[in-house]
Write a structure and sequence with these properties.
Number of strands: 4
Largest sheet: 4 strands, parallel
Low-confidence stretches: none
Number of helices: 7
Strand content: 5-15%
Structural class: alpha/beta
Radius of gyration: 16 Å
Length: 182
């Protein structure tokens, strides 16, 4: 008998919040808790949401990830050691059922923020199927530690910020630039 594919579903968020956050896939912590973007990645996301709330409170009305719709490029669990790799492959992302799920997950959202290459790829594939007027912001960085530790420039050497916060400030600033261009 084949091993069952483990999946973690999206976070619904508040009904009055039309902002969605898209990441790569659930990992080991998400499998254990059943909650997306958990562990250190979740902590980092909430730091980023507080920064974005301070800059753009009309769009980022909330500072808690559970107040946003959160989904992934794939809802299949991936992590080192589970025999499934750490990231979804192209075939998994491009699977018609996966793309249908993603469109359903993003239905009704005015803003979609993608974090990292896999999320960017998946949302690019369904962009034409999203509600008219949905604005997609392709954030180049994932907010997990591997993603932000690839950011080599800390933000203005601010002594009041930790290294993680400095790197998240870089992500924050990139989001602001993306939104200005839109």
């Amino acid at each position: 008998m084949a091993e069952e594919i483990r999946r973690v579903q999206r976070i619904e968020g508040r009904e009055d919040n039309r902002v969605a956050l898209v990441f790569s896939c659930p990992g080991q912590v998400e499998e254990k808790t059943g909650i997306l973007v958990n562990g250190q990645t979740g902590v980092n996301l909430e730091i980023l949401l507080r920064m974005l709330h301070d800059s753009l409170p009309e769009i980022f009305r909330y500072t808690i990830k559970g107040d946003y719709r959160v989904t992934n490029a794939s809802n299949i669990v991936h992590f080192a050691g589970n025999g499934n790799g750490t990231e979804p492959g192209k075939k998994e992302i491009r699977d018609p059922e996966n793309l249908k799920r993603l469109v359903e997950d993003l239905k009704g959202d005015a803003w979609v923020f993608t974090f990292g290459a896999k999320a960017n790829e998946a949302v690019d594939l369904v962009r034409s199927d999203l509600d008219p007027g949905t604005r997609v912001m392709r954030v180049p960085h994932h907010v997990g530690m591997q993603g932000i530790n690839r950011i080599l420039i800390d933000h203005m050497a601010d002594p009041d910020l930790t290294n993680t916060e400095k790197r998240l400030k870089v992500v924050h600033d990139k989001i602001l630039v993306l939104m200005e261009k839109d």
